[in-house]
Design goal:
By secondary structure, the protein is mostly helical. It has five helices and no strands. It is flat and about 55 Å long.
Length: about 100
């Protein structure tokens, strides 16, 4: 359990995770798949697997979808190319280490 929990928490590359536990990448890949299924099988009867939708989360919490949606942290939305309400970017200052070129 420690092995798969460390992998899920750190999201380490399989090569690095394998090195951490003394195995090559292909063996780490095999263990990730085996142990992850075991973890899900253990958590499922307890109702502790991640909810994959707001509807499922609302059912688990015994709440309305609106209430469940309030506890979900939305993904950060990338800024649009032009947003008039956004603050103006800071001016780019010349580096004190760079001298101007004279042609």
């Amino acid at each position: 359990m420690l092995w798969i929990l460390v992998h899920l928490k750190t999201c380490a590359l399989q090569v690095m995770h394998g090195l951490l536990f003394g195995m090559d990448q292909s063996r780490a890949n095999q263990w990730i798949h085996v142990l992850f299924e075991g973890l899900k099988a253990t958590l499922r009867p307890l109702g502790d697997t991640p909810a994959r939708s707001v509807t499922e989360l609302a059912q688990r919490l015994g709440a309305a979808e609106v209430e469940a949606a309030a506890v979900v942290v939305p993904a950060e939305v990338p800024p649009t190319l032009y947003d008039p309400s956004a603050p103006a970017p800071a001016p780019v200052l010349a580096s004190p280490l760079r001298t101007p070129r004279h042609n």
